[in-house]
Amino acid sequence: MIHFDFSDEDNPDLSPAAMSGSDESWMRRALSLGLAAAEQDEVPVGAIVVHQDRIIGSGWNQREQLKDPTAHAEMIAITQASAALESWRLIDCTLYVTLEPCPMCAGAILQARIPRVVYGARDPKAGAVDSLYRLLNDPRLNHAVQITGGVLAVECGRILTEFFEAKRKLGKK
Ligand code: ZN
Predict the structure, then answer these.
(1) Residue 83, Cβ neighbours under 10 Å: how many?
(2) Torsion angles phi and psi, residue 116, rounded to 5
(3) Distances from the Cα of 84 to the Cα of 68, 75, 89, angstroms
């Protein structure tokens, strides 16, 4: 069974200041993309890249549709954002994603030099930001990312558990 952790207790970044209203409103946008993924029978994860208060990249998980293991929400949003800025460097950008990024997406975040990442639910099975690895703050690497975790964690996790519960029920029929 896939289990997503919504608890905030061990998340050091959940100070009231980190939970600013605008982070929540951007996360709601990412969440709506996650719901779009669920409607297309994709694991519901959504991501946006915000630059100067404007969304310049957005994506949802399209692994099944594109038959592409790299088609995670973050990868699609990052590619779009780079096209919008005409640069591989996403300076002054914040990535919002409903689920803690995996190692591949954390790698892309580092490659794009994204200065800030805000995520929703933790992913104890694949998370590479806080859960399994801390790739975005490894002193051996040449880029460090400011991280805010747990923004709308309950909502972001709920769309995942509901998706997998529905899948399981269908499987039993
Ligand atoms: Zn990923």
Answers:
(1) 11
(2) -145, 135
(3) 23, 14, 11
In order of 5, 66, 75, 111, 145, the CA distances from 86 in angstroms are 37, 24, 16, 15, 21
Q: Please name the amino acid found at residue 79.
A: T
Q: Could you read off the pLDDT of 80-136 as tens digits, one per residue?
A: 999 999 999 999 999 999 999 999 999 999 999 999 999 999 999 999 999 999 999
- Half-sphere exposure in the Cβ direction for 44 (13 Å, CA): 27
Instruction: Supply the angle between the helices 73-85 and 103-111 in degrees, to the nearest 10.
Output: 10
Phi, psi of 21 (to 5 degrees): -60, -40
For the entire predicted model, the pTM comes to 0.87
Question: Is 165 part of the annotated catalytic residue set?
Answer: no
* The one catalytic residue among 42, 74, 100, 155: 74
- 71 Cα–ligand 1 center, Å: 8
